[in-house]
Specification:
Number of helices: 13
Radius of gyration: 20 Å
Structural class: alpha/beta
Number of strands: 13
Shape: globular
Distance between the termini: 33 Å
Strand content: 15-25%
Largest sheet: 9 strands, mixed
Order of helices and strands: EEEHEHHHEHEHEHEHEHEHEHEHEH
């Protein structure tokens, strides 16, 4: 996994797809689906593809694409790195001061993560191996779960994806106790006793609100409760919350940096940790982190909510890490995802097969999505 990469060019493209049904969370509503695609070309003309997290706020997609073109492209074009991991370290060091000076460590980390995904994809394609195998995985078969079930009649969407082979489902909550509980009851009635159900608060509660809300969620067979508190809340508050409930506690999509993730692993509060490889760390940091999570006796469930390229990369990363985790797949219709993920569009009893195509697989679907490209 130490192939040198000599960079000719790097480009970023923005796609936007309107939504028939906006995606509701406790902190805001998505009116469209964005996707920032990164394409890295080496000196021999080989290409690799990555994706940068950009969901909120909605102007973030164009902003991150322009960071790539204005900051990272001049740093990378014409340079050579001993490996993607060395490139990640070098680019992080070169932009550290600017990320702080601009008060934007998050967007810089997201750009770096997407670039890293593209570099790993490039190396796997050059080797002619699927990314999961290039990273040391034993199989391309991964468990998946349906995410993004909105608080308005979630059972309808859940029933549709259940017929497509899903057996695990995650509901967004934090919209009032009565509504949350009614939605859980509707999902259980629709999906049956054997379906795995999880809930996501999206950082929507204080510790006191959690104290008030958790009793109503007990004895419902929930596999986890995700981000009940702010990601910046002290670990002492997370431990207090975990002691209140029998439901496993999950978090990680909004943690950033090796130190913060190590604290999460060591906190004693989390059962499931959910890094987002397009938001922080890419594969260079995500692969050792995923293994560290599993080695600590916790469970690695990669977070993902975006377009198809980042989803594929996250799936290949999960396959390489191994363990009992499952890949998060947004259940809502999204051409920016489905046109690029033929392997993940086929689910059998909660499992998908990433296949043996080089890298993350073909990206021919980008031609179909050209009508959605805005930058």
């Amino acid at each position: 996994m130490n192939q040198p990469v000599a960079i000719r060019d790097i480009e970023a493209f923005v796609y936007r797809c309107p939504l028939e049904t906006p995606v509701q969370t406790s902190f805001g509503t998505m009116m469209d689906r964005p996707m920032v695609v990164v394409r890295v070309t080496d000196q021999d003309g080989h290409r690799g593809w990555g994706e940068i997290w950009c969901n909120f706020p909605m102007v973030g997609a164009e902003h991150r694409a322009r960071l790539v073109s204005s900051v990272f492209q001049p740093l990378m074009a014409g340079t050579e790195y001993a490996s993607p991991a060395r490139a990640f370290a070098a680019l992080g060091a070169a932009t550290r001061v600017l990320a702080l000076q601009s008060a934007e460590p998050g967007p810089f980390a997201q750009c770096l993560a997407g670039i890293d995904l593209a570099l790993w994809d490039l190396c796997a394609r050059r080797r002619g191996e699927p990314l999961w195998r290039y990273l040391g995985g034993a199989s391309g078969r991964i468990a998946v779960y349906a995410s993004g079930l909105n608080p308005t009649e979630p059972e309808r969407l859940a029933a549709r994806v259940a017929t497509a082979g899903y057996t695990r489902f995650k509901l967004k909550i934090g919209f009032g106790a009565e509504r949350d509980r009614a939605n859980l009851a509707a999902l259980r009635d629709t999906l049956g006793a054997d379906a795995d159900l999880m809930v996501d608060v999206n950082q929507g509660w204080s510790l006191q609100q959690a104290r008030e809300q958790l009793p109503g969620l007990e004895n419902r067979g929930l596999k986890w409760i995700e981000e009940p508190l702010l990601c910046t809340s002290p670990w002492s508050e997370w431990r207090t919350l975990a002691a209140m409930t029998e439901i496993p506690v999950a978090a990680g999509e909004n943690l950033m940096g090796e130190e913060r993730f190590r604290e999460g692993i060591d906190s004693g509060a989390l059962s499931i940790i959910q890094p987002d490889a397009a938001k922080w760390g890419g594969i260079s940091q995500g692969l050792p982190l995923g293994k560290a999570i599993n080695d600590a006796g916790l469970r690695y469930f990669p977070h993902y909510l975006g377009g198809g390229i980042g989803l594929l990369a996250s799936g290949h990363l999960l396959a390489a890490v191994g363990g009992e985790g499952a890949l998060e797949v947004d259940a809502n219709p999204n051409p920016l995802r489905s046109a690029l993920t033929p392997t993940l569009n086929r689910v059998d009893n909660g499992v998908a097969d990433l296949g043996d195509a080089p890298g993350i697989g073909p990206v021919d679907g980008l031609a179909e999505l050209e009508r959605y490209r805005v930058l």
